[in-house]
Amino acid sequence: MNSRFPEHLRRKTIHSGKTTMVEKLLSRLNLSTVCQSARCPNRNECYGHGTATFLLMGDVCTRRCRFCAVKKGMTAPVDESEPERVAEAAFLLNLKHVVLTSVTRDDLADGGARHFKETIIAIRKRLPDSTIETLIPDLMGNADALQIILSAHPDVLNHNVETVPRLYHEIRPDADYQRSLSILRMSKAMAPEIATKSGLMLGMGETKEEILSVLYDLRLQGCNALTLGQYLAPTPKHYPVKEYISPKTFDDWKGQAEAMGFQYVASAPYVRSSYHAEQIFLKG
Is residue 93 a contact partner of residue 130, using CB atoms and an 8 Å limit? Predict the structure, then answer.
């Protein structure tokens, strides 16, 4: 870890035999993970535990978010064989909780909703007892597309607001805060039995009052679970870190969020949206 980071963010990179096994399996099945594409700092830990978050529909995104390391540009056609390969990988890894996400595909009429559904169906066939979490893009607010995903009955519908609304124009120029809230609200209205989840990265210049306002907004949409983590710029070309948040402050936010009614809260510097995602079920 770079010495410019505060002490609480410095940790050793650990490789294990299982990490290598996961990397080889993903390579053999030609699968992408957000762990690798987004340069997640927890990749070696998660791979070392035999888990990964599958990135559907390629590794190129149609949006220009300034915080994200995923490639931007021209996308490739959706690979119709991918759902079966994801299911095969999940089966070989014996995953108890499978997390699916995707790049944002604004070039697709349904934003990739049918592909999410087909992947869920394929996993259910191979791992009928496993739980499935979908971390989805905003689908341009398309309720019909959202219904397609919900019709496959994922156990968790996750959509991140990422930051406070004031920073959207600078950090997420193609996104819309109210549209993101609408995805969570519609999900809860269409399928109240499916847990909803969202998350923010802290340290991007937001104020405490703005964070609190977002948490209230999420609870108003019926959001059940929350993740809060430290933003770390993937490269010097990305949006700069404005503040390093202390572990104590993350603990304080966890307490406040729980007091607001969130059923599950993960709040710590290295928390990411799918980090230890299965804990939502252990908590319940």
Answer: no
Helix (H) or strand (E) segment spanning residue 260: none
Secondary structure element (H or E) that encloses residue 198, with its range: strand 195-202
Phi then psi dihedrals of residue 234, to 5 deg: -60, -35
Torsion region of 112: left, alpha or beta (phi above 0 gives left; psi -120 to 50 gives alpha): left
pLDDT digit string (tens) for 224-264? 999 999 999 988 999 999 999 999 999 999 999 999 999 99
Q: Give, as one character, the DSSP assignment of residue 194.
A: S
d(C-alpha 199, C-alpha 211), whole Å: 11
Residue 77 pLDDT class (50, 70, 90 cuts): very high
At 8-18, the pLDDT tens digits run 766 665 655 67
**DSSP letter assigned to residue 121:** H
Q: Contact, 119 vs 135, CB < 8 A?
A: no
- Are 113 and 145 in contact by the 8 Å Cβ rule? The answer is yes
Q: What is the CATH number of domain 7-283?
A: 3.20.20.70
Distances (CA, A) of 276 to 98, 174, 271: 11, 29, 8
Q: DSSP letter string over 97-114?
A: EEEEEE---TTSTTTTHH
What is the rounded distance in angstroms from the CA atom of residue 214 to the CA atom of residue 236? 28
User: Percent of the chain beyond pLDDT 70?
Assistant: 86
CA distance 270 to 11: 11
**Residue 242: how many other CB atoms lie within 10 Å:** 12
- Single pTM value for the model: 0.91
